[in-house]
Write a structure and sequence with these properties.
There is one protein chain. Helices cover 33% and strands 18% of the residues. With 257 residues, the protein is α/β, with parallel strands linked by helices. The protein has two domains: 175 residues, Rossmann fold, CATH 3.40.50.150; 60 residues, rRNA adenine dimethylase, C-terminal domain (Helicase, Ruva Protein, domain 3, Orthogonal Bundle). It has a seven-stranded mixed beta sheet with strand order 4-3-2-5-6-9-7, with helices on both faces. Strands 1-8 form a two-stranded antiparallel ribbon. β2, α2 and β3 form a beta-alpha-beta unit. The termini are far apart.
């Protein structure tokens, strides 16, 4: 059956077998027996994931792609989920079981996929796949860089982030105008935070939403005491703080409330 799926949600379909195998090989297979591929398209990456000694699920919203997968991956058919991943309840497929995420992620929703994974981090020990290069770099970046930001801090609070390799536009149909980057996120052995996690998320987002300002100005809505505002940490800008420094900052704000 020859079905050509349309580009959907900004997705560019991978057309290079060696790159597909390298992405599949980013999975360590440690700490889970199931993997969910997001946006499989024509299954170029899927076939290499299926070679792994784990149970593969795929989630795809494009009906043409789903039709192609059902016709060409018969053993996978019961585990093809035709849903919008951003609205999908992972427990429908996995219950409380741990699972990894992998994919050539649609550029338009890639950061939203990361945030959804963070919300479900208790079940996701590993996350690997391909993003627009600058997004992959931002996720893996450390303090002091102009691209270090909200994604960097929130992801690295819970996961070890490794930028694995760069992928040129020529291996996609249609070719994007930018390079892509493949990364792997491995959940930390202890991924609980010693501070209020909701407050941590709010502090990080508030700080970077006004990243050119010092923390004293960007966090003024927290009604901090004069004694706390005198702390020299508030003289810094958000990109100067490591993940651990943001955790400490959240702790001092928490005790001041």
């Amino acid at each position: 059956m020859n079905v050509k799926p349309k580009k959907y949600l900004g997705q560019h379909f991978l057309n290079d077998e060696m790159i597909a195998k390298k992405i599949a090989d980013a999975l360590t297979l440690e700490g889970y027996a199931d993997v969910l591929e997001i946006g499989p398209g024509m299954g170029v990456l899927t076939k290499y994931i299926l070679e792994k000694p784990i149970t593969t699920y795929v989630i795809e919203i494009d009906p043409e792609s789903v039709e192609y997968l059902q016709a060409n991956f018969l053993n996978l058919a019961p585990r093809i989920i035709q849903e919008n991943v951003l609205k999908y309840d992972f427990s429908s497929a996995f219950g409380t079981r741990p699972f990894a995420i992998i994919g050539n992620f649609p550029y338009n929703i890639s950061t939203q996929i990361v945030f959804k994974a963070l919300e479900n981090r208790d079940q996701i020990p590993e996350f690997a796949g391909m993003f627009q290069k600058e997004v992959a770099q931002r996720i893996c970046e450390t303090k002091g860089s102009k691209i270090y930001g909200i994604l960097s801090v929130l992801v690295q609070a819970f996961y070890e982030a490794d930028y694995l390799f760069t992928v040129p536009p020529s291996v996609f149909i249609p070719p994007p105008k930018v390079e892509s980057g493949v990364l792997r996120l491995t959940r930390k052995a202890d991924y609980s935070l010693p501070c209020d996690e909701k407050l941590f998320f709010r502090v990080v987002k508030s700080a970077f939403q006004q990243r050119r300002k010092t923390l004293r100005n960007s966090l003024k809505t927290y009604n901090l005491s004069d004694n706390l505002k005198a702390n020299t940490i508030f003289d810094k800008r958000p990109e100067q703080l490591s993940v651990q420094a943001f955790i400490k900052l959240t702790l001092v704000i928490e005790t001041d409330q």
